[in-house]
Amino acid sequence: MIRKTYKDKNTTFTPLYKNLLAWQIADELAKSVYKTTKTFPKDETYGLTSQLRRATLSVALNIIEGYARNNKNEFRQFLRIALGSLAEATYLLEFALDQNYLSTNAFKEITEKRNRCGQLLWKLFQSQTK
Q1: Percent of the chain having pLDDT more than 90?
Q2: Is 77 inside a domain boundary?
Q3: Residue 64 to residues 19, 24, 27, 88, 113, Cα–Cα distance (Å)
């Protein structure tokens, strides 16, 4: 579940959650969504754009918060929440595609990251059993 050690250019301290592959992909997903939603209609700023951004950002944030609790059961609970946020993002991406706010290529690219993130999150969740 761990990719190569994450190197932070700006500090000598690197939080350990950054070594989790699930977090790394969730981070990439959130950044892709933020970049892509810049082209959404302005009247969606406080609607779909905001909701999609919050859902994908929530995935990475819940991994961080759960990891910081340093308790396996709490970590599992936060991973459950992250999985729920990922499911929410899935619907929102499909909705954005249906509304023609996303190109097919952008949808495919983000969905591939979303799927990879889901696989890794699920494996991480399962690895935290008693």
Answers
A1: 85
A2: yes
A3: 11, 11, 11, 19, 18
Read off the amino acid at residue 99.
Answer: Q
DSSP codes joined into one string, 32-71: HHHHHHTTS-GGGIIIIIHHHHHHHHHHHHHHHHHHHTT-
Q: How many percent of the chain have pLDDT more than 70? A: 89
Q: Does residue 65 form part of some domain? A: yes
CATH number of the domain that residue 53 is part of: 1.20.1440.60
In a domain, 27, yes or no: yes
Pull the structure tokens for residue 48.
């779909």
pLDDT in tens, 14-36: 788 999 999 999 999 999 999 99
- Residue 36 in any domain: the answer is yes
Distances (CA, A) of 92 to 5, 47, 50, 77: 32, 11, 11, 23
Which residue shows structure tokens 């819940």?
62
Please tell me what DSSP assigns to residue 1.
-
pTM over 0.90? The answer is no
Structural domains of the chain, count: 1
